[in-house]
């Protein structure tokens, strides 16, 4: 069954190979391990990505380093990627499409290859989308997608690695088969890990010691994160991928209807989108003083909202001044989950107009 589903997923993303894993985090881990970099090699992430994606590098013995994002697209910028990889000699970029908003890596792929920088695509929040005739999931040396709760193909868990390279495929397959295979230990291990993380967070350790401790804790609890795919997840994934085009075109239409209804409202800033986007959540910025009030009104009216992602400045003891755009986005962002019916964009638009009007009068 596993091989059959992997073939179907590879075909969906026009990749030669697919390897299923227990999560998107495990998929990133397998790729990073499979690259066989030296211990402590750096991996560049956007500062406001999902923290578990960053933990995957730590599990693999690598050092995450961070870039600020672009204020218009909310994603990494070409210029920053090139600048940081050159200045800091970073061998791997985790090319992440945040919020499902696609980044066009085509502009920098050649330059990265010339500089011997490996591009890995994190399409966990963006698969289903397409840019410059490339699918999200088809960009870079290898890509990852996630079937975790809340993702486009929302299952109880699971992730996949996609690549066209036979050698890397063999390596990631072997690594994925060496992961823990007992899902029952997962939640218990995670709880223990969170407790230990909390304790070191309170110790005001110097940065180096803090990172070392964090690494130690993560790595000794890898059973909470790095698992093989299991039968239940595979069945759910198989069922969902058979409806992939319906689910993604419905999500695309949702995204467009939200965009059309919201983009002209004064006081709202939406990201600059490129290509065909299958948004993860509909994300937009409001003035920071109004953000909590607007979120409250939306949730009081039955919409699920979140304020992701806060840049991981405290988590990694970094300086706010180095990440001004991510800090600003983090203070102003609202993400609306797509769960309501077709007319919800109009309802949201009406609520936003009323709330923004109220807030200024
Ligand atoms: C951008 C990104 N990458 C990776 C992951 C990790 O995926 P998983 O939750 O399947 O481990 C997530 C999870 O939300 C994510 O948002």
Describe the protein.
This protein is α/β, with parallel strands linked by helices and 361 residues long. The chain has three domains: 2-182 and 225-240, Type I PLP-dependent aspartate aminotransferase-like (Major domain) (Aspartate Aminotransferase, domain 2, 3-Layer(aba) Sandwich), CATH 3.40.640; 183-224, no CATH class; 244-360, Alpha-Beta Complex (Aspartate Aminotransferase, domain 1). It is built from 13 helices and twelve strands. It has helices spanning 2-12, 24-34, 51-59, 78-88, 106-114, 166-177, 184-201, 207-220, 231-241, 244-262, 288-300, 324-332, 344-360; strands spanning 17-21, 42-46, 63-67, 92-96, 118-122, 130-131, 134-135, 142-146, 159-163, 282-285, 305-306, 333-336. It has a seven-stranded mixed β-sheet with strand order 1-9-8-5-4-2-3, sandwiched between helices. α3 (51-59) links the parallel β2 (42-46) and β3 (63-67). The radius of gyration is 20 Å and the shape is globular. The mean pLDDT is 94. It binds pyridoxal-5'-phosphate.
Coarse morphology? globular
Low-confidence stretches: none
Largest sheet: 7 strands, mixed
Give me the Rg, rounded: 20 Å
Number of domains: 3
């Amino acid at each position: 069954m596993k091989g059959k589903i992997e073939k179907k997923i590879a075909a969906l993303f026009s990749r030669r190979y697919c390897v299923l894993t227990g999560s998107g985090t495990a998929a990133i881990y397998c790729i990073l391990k499979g690259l066989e970099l030296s211990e402590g090699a750096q991996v560049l992430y956007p500062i406001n990505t999902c923290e578990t994606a960053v933990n995957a590098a730590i599990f693999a013995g690598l050092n995450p380093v961070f870039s600020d994002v672009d204020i218009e697209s909310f994603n990494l910028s070409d210029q920053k990627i090139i600048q940081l990889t050159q200045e800091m000699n970073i061998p791997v970029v985790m090319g992440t499409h945040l919020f499902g908003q696609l980044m066009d890596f085509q502009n920098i792929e050649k330059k990265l290859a010339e500089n011997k920088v490996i591009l890995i695509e994190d399409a966990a929040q963006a698969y289903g989308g397409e840019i410059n005739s490339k699918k999200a999931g088809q960009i870079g040396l290898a890509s990852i997608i996630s079937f975790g709760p809340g993702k486009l193909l929302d299952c109880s868990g699971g992730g996949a690695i996609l690549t066209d390279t036979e050698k890397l495929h063999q390596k990631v397959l072997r690594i994925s088969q060496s992961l823990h295979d007992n899902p029952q230990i997962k939640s218990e291990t995670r709880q223990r890990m969170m407790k230990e993380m909390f304790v070191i967070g309170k110790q005001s350790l110097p940065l180096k010691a803090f990172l070392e401790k964090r690494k130690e804790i993560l790595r000794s609890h890898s059973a909470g994160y790095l698992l093989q795919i299991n039968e239940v997840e595979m069945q759910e994934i198989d069922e969902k991928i058979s409806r992939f085009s319906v689910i993604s075109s419905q999500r695309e239409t949702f995204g467009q209807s939200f965009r059309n209804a919201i983009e002209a409202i004064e006081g709202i800033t939406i990201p600059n989108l490129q290509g065909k986007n299958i948004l993860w959540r509909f994300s937009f910025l409001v003035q920071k003083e109004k953000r909590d009030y607007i979120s409250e009104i939306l949730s009081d009216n039955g919409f699920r909202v979140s304020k992701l992602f806060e840049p991981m400045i405290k988590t990694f003891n970094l300086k706010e001044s180095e990440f001004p755009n991510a800090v600003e986005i983090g203070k102003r962002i609202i993400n609306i989950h797509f769960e309501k019916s077709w007319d919800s964009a109009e309802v949201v638009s009406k609520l936003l107009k009323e709330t923004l009007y109220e807030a200024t009068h």
